[in-house]
UniProtKB/TrEMBL annotation:
InterPro entries to which the protein is assigned, alphabetical: EXOC6/Sec15, EXOC6/Sec15_C, EXOC6/Sec15_C_dom1, EXOC6_Sec15_N, EXOC6PINT-1/Sec15/Tip20_C_dom2
Organism: Rhodinocichla rosea
GO BP field: Golgi to plasma membrane transport; intracellular protein transport; vesicle tethering involved in exocytosis
Exocyst complex subunit EXOC6/Sec15 C-terminal domain location: 373-721
Gene3D superfamilies assigned: Dsl1p vesicle tethering complex, Tip20p subunit, domain D (1.20.58.670), Exocyst complex subunit Sec15 C-terminal domain, N-terminal subdomain (1.10.357.30)
Gene behind this protein: Exoc6
Name assigned to this protein: EXOC6 protein
Length: 764
């Protein structure tokens, strides 16, 4: 360590000590060698003495070996001959033994070839199994056995291919016969269901009878059914009942299953079979594009599906493991989802309710015991209801188109009973009248009522065999009927009311018709209750919304009456031809106005069958519209001048309107209520006829004013038209003092009216 620490003279001191150590070791080595040298010399001397004896011994051994070899040559030759003979003997014995082992192998292989030639494949596989497990292992060392061993897998593959070919033929066969198998199975299910239904109905009929007679009658009816069924069974035994095995040979499946089981490939076969059947299931579940057009299309579709699952059910029960309950349930669920999707799609294309009903009967009639299909049936029920609503919409339209919108005439008692047999009509006052007489409604009312009942019957048909309680059926019928009333019939009524060819007379009759239909709604509720045996007093029983439907239609018809009346008034107003510059009136009312009043009188006479409020509202609306139209005629901006003679003529027309209003064209108005519709015109015309401007201006704004309903802007507009007329018609008016004074008065009144109008606008 000190050498590496770089101490002064450390290296030199180390070398000196090292040299001293070396000299000490050399002296010790030299001492040791001197001590053993004599022993070494003695050992070498002894070894040299032994060498001579060893040479002598070598010569003696060599001589002895030579003499022994010469003596044993003859013995060796004899011994080799004996060994060769014994080997030959052992080989012969071995060959005989091996041949005895090989002969059974060859016989079994020959048997295998024979079995293959006669197509006894299952026996051939058993022979192969014996060869492999029992015979070939004994002689496996021979080349011909190796060849056999190599051929056996090929023979197995050949057998598998042949059996698989048979299986494919079988699959093709059942694909062709699935519809026939399904048709047979569905017929048998239908027969069983028909018998069960008949028995149940018979029991239900007999159940409600008197107890002391009911029990005997039920026993008698059951005995009759039993006897009938016995005879039917005997007839069925006479006829050959086809089964799945009669229509399809299942032996290829059994044979192929056994072969693959022996080969240890049962799982492969099961997977292949299930895969192929899944493919076939998808093909079976794929419907034709035109399936929704006829019930035969649906029947063929169902037959194929049923046939498919009948085959699977047969395979399930006659084989073990090839088809399991889990597999069939999974396959059925897959098929069910596809069936539901297909039926949901194709049923939506159906526009014929009868076809939808037959589709329901197919599903229910052939006894698919699946809740999801029943859920689908409820969806199809909605589709059925929609198709019914569309069909009945057309029926309602046809009824409305064919109606003459006039009361139904009945000439005798027989005709009267025919009408009331179709529609629940009661009127004691009408019953007292003698024939011939007229019923207030038109012919569409009993027809509509009968069609609503037919709709209820049609809706009820779909509920049969759906395993629903009477309460649910009652609720469904009421909901469907409500849809018919509130949507279909209401829409048809609204469209009818809006048609341009429907006049005031037709609208009046429509209002009368809806009134009677509204009153008949309670009979429809009784009709549904009688069908379902559910009392209307039940808490959950829905009510028919016919009242609102017919009220809405009536309100629409009333509004259309008001509109058409106003349109007719406008047509008369448009043909008015006033000479606004005439110097004096004709002394009588205008012809167009008299025609208009005569029209209103005849129209309001038709309104006698309407409810009083409707007739009064129509009359008031017509008078107000007439008054407004006449006022607008006076104030028309295109009318630039009006003479006093024109005002007088206009006043004569307004007087006729007031006389019409006072004549009470519709009963029920109190006092001069109807005349108030013309009060604005009357006060305006009185102001100009009397030329009472001082009173108007002095009393303006007071509640007791004689001209309270005269607006300053209205008076100003009309006065300016008269001022312009005075200027143009009186060229020399400035030379006559009276005319000049009148002109100044007009200008003064105009200024005051303008100040009133400006004050009103500022106040506003």
């Amino acid at each position: 360590r000190s050498v590496y620490d770089d101490q002064p003279n450390a290296h030199q001191k180390f070398m000196e000590k090292l040299d001293a150590c070396i000299r000490n070791h050399d002296r010790e080595i030299e001492k040791m060698c001197n001590f053993h040298h004599q022993g070494f010399v003695d050992a070498i001397t002894e070894l040299l003495k032994v060498r001579a004896d060893a040479e002598k011994l070598k010569v003696q051994v060599t001589d002895t070996n030579r003499r022994l070899q010469d003596a044993g040559k003859e013995v060796i030759a004899q011994t080799e001959e004996i060994i060769r003979c014994r080997v030959q003997q052992r080989n012969i014995t071995t060959v005989v033994e091996k041949l005895q082992l090989c002969l059974p192998v060859l016989e079994m292989y020959s048997k295998l070839k024979e079995q293959m030639s006669v197509k006894r494949y299952y026996s051939a596989l058993k022979t192969m199994e014996q060869l492999e497990n029992l015979y070939l292992p004994r002689v496996s060392q021979y080349r011909f056995c190796q060849i056999m061993m190599e051929n056996l897998p090929k023979l197995r593959e050949e057998i598998k291919e042949i059996s698989m070919s048979d299986l494919k033929d079988f699959l093709e066969s059942i694909r062709k016969h699935s519809d026939r198998i399904g048709e047979t199975a569905m017929k048998q299910a239908q027969q069983q269901k028909t018998f069960s239904t008949a028995l149940q109905k018979q029991n239900n009929v007999n159940y409600g009878r008197n107890m002391h007679l009911g029990r005997n009658r039920i026993l008698e009816s059951k005995n009759e059914i039993t006897l009938k069924r016995t005879f039917e069974d005997e007839d069925e035994h006479d006829e050959e009942v086809l089964t799945a095995q009669d229509l399809v040979d299942f032996s290829p499946v059994y044979r192929c299953l056994h072969i693959y089981s022996v080969l240890g490939d049962a799982e492969i076969f099961e997977n292949y079979y299930r895969k192929q059947r899944r493919k076939q299931a998808r093909l079976v579940l794929q419907p034709q594009s035109s399936m929704h057009e006829t019930v035969e299309g649906y029947r063929r579709y169902f037959s194929q599906i049923v046939g498919f699952f009948v085959v699977e059910d047969h395979i399930l029960h006659v084989t073990q493991g090839l088809v399991t309950r889990t597999y069939t349930d999974e396959l059925w669920n897959m098929a069910l989802s596809k069936i539901i999707a297909v039926l949901r799609t194709h049923s939506s294309y159906c526009s014929d309710p009868d076809l939808v009903l037959e589709l329901k009967n197919l599903i229910v009639g052939y006894g698919f015991p699946v809740n999801r299909l029943f859920d689908l049936l409820f969806e199809i029920r909605d589709q059925y209801s929609e198709t019914l609503l569309k069909k009945w919409s057309g029926l309602f339209r046809d009824i409305f188109e064919a109606d003459n919108y006039s009361p139904i005439p009945v000439a005798n008692e027989e005709e009267y009973r025919i009408v009331i047999s179709k529609f629940p009509f009661q009127d004691p006052e009408l019953d007292k009248q003698s024939f011939p007489k007229k019923l207030p409604m038109s012919q569409s009312v009993p027809q509509i009522y009968m069609q609503v009942k037919e709709f209820i019957y049609a809706s009820l048909k779909f509920s049969e065999s759906l395993h629903r309680s009477s309460t649910e059926i009652d609720d469904m019928l009421r909901k469907s009927t409500n849809l018919l009333l509130t949507r279909t019939l209401s829409s048809c009524l609204q469209n009818l009311i809006k048609k341009p060819h429907i006049g005031l007379t037709e609208l009046v009759q429509i209002i009368i018709n809806t009134t009677h239909l509204e009153q008949a709604c309670k009979y429809l509720e009784d009709f549904i209750s009688n069908i379902t045996n559910i009392s209307q007093l039940t808490v959950h029983t829905a009510r028919l919304y016919g009242l609102s439907t017919f009220k809405d239609a009536r309100h629409a018809a009333e509004g259309e009456i008001y509109t058409k009346l106003n349109q007719k008034i406008d047509e008369f107003i448009q043909i008015a031809d006033y000479d606004w510059t005439m110097s004096e009136s004709d002394g009588r009312a205008s012809g167009y106005l008299m025609d208009l009043i005569n029209f209103l009188r005849s129209t309001f006479q038709v309104f006698t069958h309407l409810p009083g409020k409707v007739a009064q509202t129509a009359c008031m609306s017509a008078c107000q519209h007439l008054s407004m139209s006449l006022m607008q005629m006076l104030l028309d901006s295109e009318l630039k001048q009006i003479s006093m003679g024109a005002i007088q003529q206009f006043n004569l027309d307004v007087i006729q309107c007031e006389l019409f209003a006072s004549s009470e064209p519709v009963p029920g108005f109190q006092g001069d209520t109807l005349q108030l519709a013309f009060i604005d015109l009357r006060q305006l015309l009185d102001l100009f006829m009397v030329w009472d401007w001082s009173t108007y201006l002095a009393d303006y704004g007071q509640a007791t004013s004689k001209y309270l309903r005269v607006n300053p802007s209205t008076a100003l507009t009309l006065l300016e038209k008269m001022k312009d007329s005075s200027k143009k018609n009186n060229i020399f008016a400035q030379f006559r003092k009276n005319d000049r004074d009148k002109q100044k008065l007009i200008e003064t009144v105009v200024k005051q009216l303008r100040s009133l109008v400006n004050g009103m606008s500022q106040h506003t």
